[in-house]
Every structure is written in structure tokens, then in C-alpha cells.
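Course exercise 7: structure representation. Students receive a sequence record and must write out the corresponding structure in C-alpha cell form. The form below is the worked example handed out in class, using Translocation protein SEC62 (126 residues). Read each field label carefully; the graders check that inputs and outputs are placed in the correct fields and that the protein name is recorded exactly as given.

STUDENT ID: A-19
EXERCISE PROTEIN: Translocation protein SEC62
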Amino acid sequence: MAERRRHKKRIQEVGEPSKEEKAVAKYLRFNCPTKSTNMMGHRVDYFIASKAVDCLLDSKWAKAKKGEEALFTTRESVVDYCNRLLKKQFFHRALKVMKMKYDKDIKKEKDKGKSESGKEEDKKSK
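STUDENT ANSWER:
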């Protein structure tokens, strides 16, 4: 119960997203190159931050119109804006964990490599 209260407080501290933030998040969702994977039994799409920054630097918000300032001028300004979107929970961070091979599997692969090279040497000597 307490977790729900804390979560509500956190959302209230950050505030509601503006129309501009929603538009930028939507642009990022559909124009940034994404990949799909299986995470804890759910199908998820993910993107790489450097590609998202490049995508936003090529967007209409990086180009200034007459009488208006550009929203994104440098990579740092894009990173700051993405951090703001992260706090407003438009997306979340995840760490990609690579599966480690067990020691037995590694030993089997080494044994296979040795036996194959031994066979090749036998063929050469004949």
C-alpha cells in the first residue's frame, strides 16, 4: 500500500507531460530504430540511446523556425530532454544481460576443437 502512495507522490512531483513532450515521445517511438526481444516472458521493443539522440537531432525540433528557438541545439540538450522524459515514465531503462555459458559447455567446445584439429592432422599425414 505504501508503495502505491510513494508512486503517486513521485508522479505528482514530476507533473503531467506537456503536449510538446508527448509529441517528442511519439516521434521517438515511431522514428527511432528499435529492436524487439523477449524480457521476462514479455515481448518488448528497445532502442539505443545514441540512436535516439541522433534521431532527435534530425527532427523538426532541432531546426529553428522564424521567430522561434530550436528545442534541441546540442547533444547535451537532447540528453537532458530525454532524462526529463525518463522521469515522466515515457520509457524506462533496462540493462541487457548476456547469458553466460557454463564451464561444461566451454570445455565441450574446447574438446571438439582439439578433436577436429587432430583429425585434420591425421588427414594431412596420410
